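TICKET: design request
STATUS: open
ATTACHED STRUCTURE:
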């Protein structure tokens, strides 16, 4: 995909944040649902890139491997090994098992079976003269035969050469990120791209584990495909740290292949390069649509990182009078929607602002309440912003997917709407930085908003995200309204995070907590405990209010709780 142009909004927009540290913090805080075996494989040895990059980045990656060794199998392109013979030996010296990835890295789909046999035989001979004969072979592009004759003929020839196929269960597009990474010119851009790689590998791993659970009702050994390139070299320590936090137990390729899943029949013959989980009987090539969508997301994210930081574009106008809607593409490549309503500000002044998640339903409710009080002179002119997602107002699945992903501070498959929707949970740290450092500053550059007087409103998972903000960046907002927050999430992760925070009484925010009396009684008990935890961590009692709305349920409480919080905040000016 060729990156498209972004419509400019302003030439004075703030730059995107460097969120790698926050991302890794969130990863380390996440408790894996289940430990699993993982074999890491690297394609295109001795190096995928230019000779100059190999001289600079290959020693970096090898040093990282020696500092924190994990079992590793490297699939070699023989023509490249002739160009960089010392490079291939350096991999051997680092304890990496050398495997076979063709002589010229030509696409089997474009070769005849005899041409492929000649290529494979020549490379096997070359590698056998330099060390132990390779035991494993991987098709370039994972193209293992686009018809049954080529597929079956290739399998027979590999047996003749004593080679076992090296399947992949966790396919990645790190090669795509590596191409973009080479073009980035600043350390800040490269750091953002590196964080994108770590996030992408974890997303791909979770997709593979979810697919295996769906197809085989268990969590088998996984085989991860990466490439020997510059971005993997730069991020190797972060990748290994993140994978360990995810629950990975690193094993050899041979050990992973001992899992019975790799003895299943591969009945796929076609043009696609499929993961093992998609090609085992019955083959499901349609599942590769997730991989294709993920690659498109990465291309969009690279476009943002490499281009302008101005990423707000006009979207379909909101039907509410006086409101505007803008669509924002964040540095993670994802689209979000900002609905905004502003009264006329006093001359020369900027407006306080109320920011609410779940904007598809929260924005019209909050705007109506704010306008009602404003028209009667009970509050100063105040802007209202509702954050939502394209399609979330009409697609319930989209609504649940996006909030399960962005509003949750840790990854867990338990709780929530379902294990399938929790599969991408734990993105709160990245969403926090996009909201606070990208989206809101860009809105403040377009509209007269005073972000130093910003209030946060969140309901349920949105309340959980508010608790995450209080634990990690409490000064982002001066007022917090947390309505029925999901404090139960991940065995009370909000309490564990809060224990790390200490409030400065002089600058502490005001916090309004609420719960419905007709909700699960555990919700009220959790909220009382949370109020006590806030006080223990130094939030002044005068800055904290908790209220139980006796006649309200989880679904009915939101308008009443916001109205009560608005009145309480105004009384505390």
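STATUS: resolved
RESOLUTION: sequence designed for all positions
ATTACHED SEQUENCE:
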């Amino acid at each position: 995909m060729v990156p498209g142009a972004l419509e400019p909004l302003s030439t004075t927009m703030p730059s995107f944040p460097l969120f790698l540290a926050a991302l890794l913090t969130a990863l380390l805080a996440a408790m894996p649902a289940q430990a699993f075996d993982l074999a890491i494989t690297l394609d295109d040895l001795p190096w995928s890139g230019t000779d100059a990059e190999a001289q600079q980045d290959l020693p970096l990656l090898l040093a990282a491997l020696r500092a924190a060794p994990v079992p590793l199998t490297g699939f070699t392109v023989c023509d490249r090994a002739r160009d960089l013979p010392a490079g291939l030996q350096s991999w051997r010296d680092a304890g990496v098992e050398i495997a076979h990835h063709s002589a010229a890295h030509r696409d089997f789909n474009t070769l005849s079976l005899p041409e492929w046999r000649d290529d494979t035989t020549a490379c096997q001979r070359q590698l056998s003269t330099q060390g132990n004969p390779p035991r494993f072979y991987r098709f370039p592009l994972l193209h293992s035969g686009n018809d049954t004759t080529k597929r079956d003929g290739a399998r027979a020839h590999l047996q003749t050469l004593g080679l076992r196929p090296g399947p992949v269960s966790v396919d990645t597009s790190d090669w795509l990120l590596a191409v973009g990474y080479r073009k980035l010119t600043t350390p800040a851009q490269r750091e953002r791209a590196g964080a994108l790689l770590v996030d992408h590998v974890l997303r791909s791993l979770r997709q593979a584990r979810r697919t295996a659970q769906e197809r085989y009702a268990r969590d088998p050994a996984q085989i991860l495909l990466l490439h020997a390139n510059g971005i993997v070299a730069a991020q190797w320590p972060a990748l290994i740290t993140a994978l360990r936090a995810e629950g990975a137990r690193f094993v050899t390729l041979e050990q992973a292949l001992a899992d019975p899943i790799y003895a299943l029949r591969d009945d796929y013959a076609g043009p696609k390069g499929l993961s093992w989980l998609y090609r085992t009987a019955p083959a499901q090539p349609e599942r590769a649509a997730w991989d294709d969508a993920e690659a498109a997301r990465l291309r969009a994210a690279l476009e943002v990182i490499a281009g302008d930081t101005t990423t707000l574009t006009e979207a379909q106008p909101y039907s509410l009078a006086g409101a505007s809607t803008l669509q924002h593409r964040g540095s993670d490549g994802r689209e979000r929607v900002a609905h905004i309503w502003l009264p006329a500000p006093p001359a020369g002044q900027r407006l306080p602002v109320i920011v609410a998640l779940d904007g598809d339903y929260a924005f019209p409710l909050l705007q109506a309440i704010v306008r009602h009080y404003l028209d009667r002179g009970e509050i100063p002119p105040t802007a209202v912003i509702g954050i939502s997602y394209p399609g979330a107002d009409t697609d319930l699945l989209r609504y649940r997917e996006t909030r399960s992903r962005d509003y949750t501070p840790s990854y867990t498959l338990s709780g929530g709407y379902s294990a399938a929707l929790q599969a991408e949970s734990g993105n709160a740290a990245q969403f926090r930085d996009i909201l606070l450092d990208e989206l809101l500053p860009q809105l403040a550059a377009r509209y007269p908003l005073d972000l130093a007087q910003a209030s946060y409103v969140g309901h349920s998972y949105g309340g959980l995200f508010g608790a995450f903000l209080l634990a990690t960046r409490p000064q982002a907002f001066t007022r917090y309204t947390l309505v029925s927050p999901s404090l139960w999430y991940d065995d009370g992760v909000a309490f564990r995070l809060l224990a790390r925070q200490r409030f400065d009484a002089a600058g502490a925010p005001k916090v309004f907590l609420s719960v419905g009396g007709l909700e699960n009684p555990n919700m009220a008990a959790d909220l009382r405990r949370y109020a006590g935890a806030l006080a223990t961590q130094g939030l002044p009692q005068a800055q904290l209010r908790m209220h139980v709305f006796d006649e309200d349920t989880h679904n009915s409480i939101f308008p009443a709780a916001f109205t009560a919080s608005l009145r309480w905040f105004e009384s505390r000016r």
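CLOSING REMARK: The longest strand covers residues 449-459. The domain at 308-571 is CATH 3.40.50.1820 (Rossmann fold).
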